[in-house]
Design goal:
With about 425 residues, the protein is of the alpha/beta class. It folds into three domains: about 1-135 and about 285-330, Periplasmic binding protein-like II (D-Maltodextrin-Binding Protein, domain 2, 3-Layer(aba) Sandwich), CATH 3.40.190.10; about 145-280 and about 375-395, D-Maltodextrin-Binding Protein, domain 2; about 335-370, no CATH class. The chain has 20 helices and twelve strands. Strands 4, 5, 6, 7, 8, 9, 10, 11 and 12 form a nine-stranded mixed sheet that branches. A three-stranded parallel sheet has the order 2-1-3. Strand 1, helix 2 and strand 2 form a beta-alpha-beta unit. Helix 8 packs across helix 11 (about 210-225) and helix 11 packs parallel to helix 19 (about 380-395).
C-alpha cells in the first residue's frame, strides 16, 4: 500500500504537468483489492500492444457511496472504477456508465470475451432488462453470503439455517455484518420460505421487494435477534471468530476464507455454509464512468485484469475469488484433498466434477438457491431507516452494556485526571 501511495503522489505530479489525457489512466478501486505489481506491468503491456505510453493514476476508496458521489455529483473524470453490484445497477440505470470500447483490442487478447463465465454473463443479464449490463461492466471478484461457524460449538445442522442468528444457545456470541442489504436479503428469504416453496414468489422478486410489509417483517425478526448480537461489524467479525469471541457470523465467503485459514493457525476450526433456505451472491466489477476521458485505455486495463495469470495473482494477494471463467484460473485452485463438486455452471461442461474449496466456488446445488441483490433506488432510504432503528433506537442489551461500560470508564478516567491535576496544584 505504501508503494501505491508513493506511486499515486508521483503520478499526481506528472498529471499536473501535462494535459495529455490520452497518456493517463485514472483508476479508482477498493483499498487492498489488487496486486500492486500488476499496475506497472499493465503500463508496459499497453505500450507494447498499442505503441502508446500510459501512466496509471491509482486511487482507492472504502465506501461505495463515496466513489459514487464523486462521479455523480463531482463529475470526477475517473476512467475505471470498481463498484459493487447494486451500485453498478444504479449507475447503469441513471446513465452514469459508458460502454466498453472493444474496437481497438485484437480478438486474440480480448480476455474479457475469452474468459467470461457463463454464470457471470447470465447474472449480469438480470441487472437491467432493457440494457445489457455485459456491455458496460465486467465482474472482478464475487462470492456468496452465508454463515461462518465454530465447529467446536456449532453443529453443521445448526448452521444450515439463517435462524441460527436467533438461536438463544449462541446469544452474546453472534456477529452480523453491518451491511443492511446483505442482511435484509437472507432474512427475507428465510421469512418467505412458504411462498418460495409454493412458487408464488421467486428469489429474484424478493430481491426487488421493498414493500412496507416486508421491511416490517424483517425489522420485527431483527428485533428478536439483536439481544444475542455480540457486534454489528464492518470488518472485525472474522477476527473475533478466530479468537473464539464469536461462534456464529453472518458474513461473506471472502472473509470466511481468511477467517478459516487464520483460525487454523491458532488451533481453531471454522467452517462456512450457505444456509439451506437460500442466499445472495455479490459482485464487484469494473466499469467506465460517464465522465471518463480515456475510454480506450480503460477498456484495455479491464481486459488486462481479465488475463488469467493476472486474475490468479489478484486472487492470491486479495484473498477474494476472481470472477474469471478461465480454466487456467480453475486449475490454479485444484485441491485433490477436496471432494469433487459441480462447477460446470461457472466454468463450462469440463468442470462438472472438480476438487476445489466449496467456500470459494459453491457447488451447483448451492448456487441454484442463490440470487443477485438489486438496487432499491428511491426506496433505499426506507431500508437504511429500518437498519438504523434496529441498531440505534432499539439497541440490544449487549450493546447497551458495552456503551454503559465505556461511559463508566470515561467517567473514572476524567475523575482520575482531575484528581491528578488537583494533586499537582497542591504540590
Amino acid at each position: 500500500m505504501r508503494k501505491i501511495l508513493c506511486f499515486a503522489v508521483l503520478t499526481f505530479i506528472f498529471l499536473s504537468c501535462t494535459d495529455n489525457r490520452e497518456q493517463i489512466l485514472k483508476v479508482y478501486n477498493w483499498s487492498d483489492y489488487i496486486d500492486e505489481s500488476v499496475i506497472p506491468e499493465f503500463e508496459a503491456w499497453y505500450e507494447a500492444h498499442t505503441g502508446s505510453p500510459i501512466q496509471v493514476v491509482y486511487q482507492t476508496f472504502d465506501v461505495n457511496e463515496t466513489m459514487l458521489s464523486k462521479i455523480e455529483k463531482g463529475h470526477e473524470d475517473y476512467d475505471v472504477v470498481c463498484p459493487s453490484d447494486y451500485i453498478i445497477e444504479r449507475m447503469l440505470n441513471n446513465g452514469l456508465l459508458l460502454p466498453l470500447g472493444f474496437s481497438s483490442i485484437p480478438d486474440s487478447i480480448n480476455y474479457i470475451a475469452l474468459n467470461r463465465s457463463p454464470y457471470i454473463q447470465g447474472v449480469f443479464d438480470e441487472i437491467n432488462p432493457n440494457i445489457n449490463a455485459n456491455d458496460y461492466s465486467v465482474a472482478y471478484m464475487w462470492g456468496t453470503t452465508g454463515i461462518i461457524y465454530n465447529t467446536a460449538h456449532v453443529t453443521a445442522e445448526e448452521a444450515a439455517t439463517w435462524d441460527i442468528i436467533r438461536n438463544p444457545k449462541f446469544a452474546g456470541r453472534i456477529l452480523i455484518k453491518d451491511a443492511p442489504r446483505d442482511v435484509y436479503g437472507p432474512v427475507l428469504i428465510y421469512l418467505k420460505q412458504k411462498e418460495l416453496k409454493e412458487g408464488s414468489v421467486t428469489l429474484q422478486e424478493l430481491m426487488h421487494d421493498a414493500s412496507d410489509a416486508s421491511i416490517a417483517a424483517v425489522e420485527n425478526y431483527l428485533n428478536q435477534v439483536k439481544d444475542g448480537v455480540l457486534g454489528w461489524e464492518a470488518d472485525f467479525g472474522k477476527d473475533q471468530m478466530t479468537k473464539e469471541r464469536g461462534v456464529v457470523s453472518l458474513n461473506w465467503s471472502g472473509d470466511a476464507v481468511w477467517a478459516i485459514d487464520e483460525a487454523a493457525e491458532v488451533g481453531v476450526t471454522l467452517d462456512y455454509v450457505v444456509p439451506e433456505e437460500g442466499s445472495t451472491v455479490w459482485f464487484d466489477g469494473w466499469v467506465i464512468p460517464k465522465y471518463a476521458k480515456n475510454v480506450e485505455a480503460a477498456t484495455w486495463f479491464i481486459d488486462f485484469m481479465c488475463r488469467p495469470d493476472i486474475a490468479i495473482r489478484n486472487m492470491e494477494v486479495t484473498g477474494y475469488v476472481s470472477a474469471s471463467g478461465s480454466l487456467e484460473v480453475l486449475e490454479s485452485q485444484i485441491d485433490e484433498a477436496r471432494e469433487p463438486i459441480d462447477l460446470s455452471y461457472f466454468f463450462g461442461p469440463e468442470a462438472d466434477s472438480v476438487r476445489v474449496d466449496p467456500v470459494l466456488y459453491p457447488d451447483r446445488a448451492v448456487i441454484e438457491r442463490c440470487t443477485l441483490e438489486h438496487d432499491w433506488g428511491d426506496d433505499t432510504d426506507k431500508l437504511l431507516a429500518m437498519w438504523s432503528r434496529v441498531k440505534g433506537n432499539n439497541a440490544s442489551t449487549s450493546t447497551m452494556v458495552v456503551l454503559l461500560a465505556a461511559v463508566a470508564l470515561l467517567v473514572v478516567w476524567m475523575i482520575s485526571r482531575r484528581n491528578r491535576k488537583n494533586r499537582r496544584r497542591r504540590k
